[in-house]
Amino acid sequence: MKVTMITGDGIGKEISQSAMDVIDASGADIVWDIVHAGEDVYEETGTLIPDGVFKSLEKNKVALKAPMTTPIGKGFRSVNVSLRKKYDLYANIRPVQSIGTIETLFENLDLVLFRENTEDLYAGVEKKVSDDEMHSIKMITRKASERIIRRAFEYAKENKRKSVTVVTKANIMKLSDGMFLEIAREIAEEFPTIEFKEILVDNMAMQLVINPYQFDVVVTENLYGDILSDEMAGLIGGLGLVPGANIGDDMAIFEAVHGSAPDIAGKNLANPTAIILGGCMMLDYLGKTKESNNIRHALNEVLSKPENFTHDLKGTATTSQFTQAVIQQMKR
């Protein structure tokens, strides 16, 4: 099975190699088509995403992607946003699950967030009215809302999850968020065995830090999902432990959802857990559940021993030491 690996920049090159080493050791029989994109490539060539990346994606249809740097407030738009829009990767899925013995406020959390991935404010529709006034247009469509909400309910049914919570700000944005909520109510009626909940986004942010156990599967719009998924990651130890999937009808890109951390790039300090878990989601997608489960089990065992904790977890293990610990655990 051939898969595209987009190595990214910053710590991307280090952790992508770590993920490939672990997946190779699992016996998953993946052939890696390694391509490069991001700020480093842009500085060298003036092209953010070279044609070779598109050709690889369009040939293989499945990719694992490392983090990439996006300048804030200026310059080119995010590679993530560009790829999601180009290939209509409408479902951003982020499982947030407690792992190992990392000390957090909450234990045994198991949440899954479904985030609409192609529109909302992230569609990038902006207008300069004057030097002193800028407009960003929030776009919500029935088609995009229906397919992400339905996917969340189908996931809940297939995985025997108890509830689906829809998050909006429909009390203020009565047209855009109002339509999203109304569609969720309609689809919920098709899944009578799944408990349906609805909540406003500001209350959701508070409830997550009070009692996250009241939630199971969560579905929401693009911007809210981006913010809430990071908050959820904080409940289990940070973004270094959370993977993500960007899935469309005929292509899927899996990733670590954290940034490129240029301050520690090349220092062998980065935690590769998130991209390895992204690789596990990729293996599940490819039907290689035995290998993905073996990797997850090994990660849980390794992260149950503080001597394996990396810098972000207040430990001293290096990227390479952590990677080898996971591989050795799989062999056991």
TrEMBL record:
Entry EC no(s): 1.1.1.-
Isopropylmalate dehydrogenase-like domain location: 2-326
Keywords assigned by UniProt, alphabetized: Oxidoreductase
MF (Gene Ontology): isocitrate dehydrogenase (NAD+) activity; magnesium ion binding; NAD binding
One GO BP annotation of this record: isocitrate metabolic process
Keyword Iron-sulfur: no
Domain of life from the UniProt record: Bacteria
SMART domains: Iso_dh
Classification via PANTHER family: DECARBOXYLATING DEHYDROGENASES-ISOCITRATE, ISOPROPYLMALATE, TARTRATE, ISOCITRATE DEHYDROGENASE [NAD] SUBUNIT ALPHA, MITOCHONDRIAL
Family: Belongs to the isocitrate and isopropylmalate dehydrogenases family.
Stated name of the protein: Isocitrate dehydrogenase
Species this chain originates from: Tetragenococcus halophilus (strain DSM 20338 / JCM 20259 / NCIMB 9735 / NBRC 12172) (Pediococcus halophilus)
